[in-house]
Amino acid sequence: MVALFPLKSVIIIIIIIMATVEDVLESVTQSQASKYKTIEVQKDIEPQLDLGNLLTVDQNPLDLKKLRGDKEAYLKSQARDNTQLLFNAIWKLPTERVEEAICVKLPETTTVLPREKPIPKAKLQTKWEQYALLKGIQKRKKGRMVWDEEAKDWRPRWGYKRANDETKDWVIEVPGNADPNEDQFEKRMKAKKERVAKNELQRLRNIARGTKSKVPGVGLTPTEKPSKEEVGLALHLAKKSTASLGKFTEKLPKEKEAKHVGKKRKFEPAIGDFKKEKEQQLNIINVMENKKPKMDITKAVNRVMTEVDQEASSDDRRKRAGKVKNRRGPPRKKGSGGFGKKGKAGKGKGAKGMGGKGKGMGGKGKGKGKGR
Question: In terms of domain of life, where is this protein from (predicted)?
Answer without folding.
Answer: Eukaryota
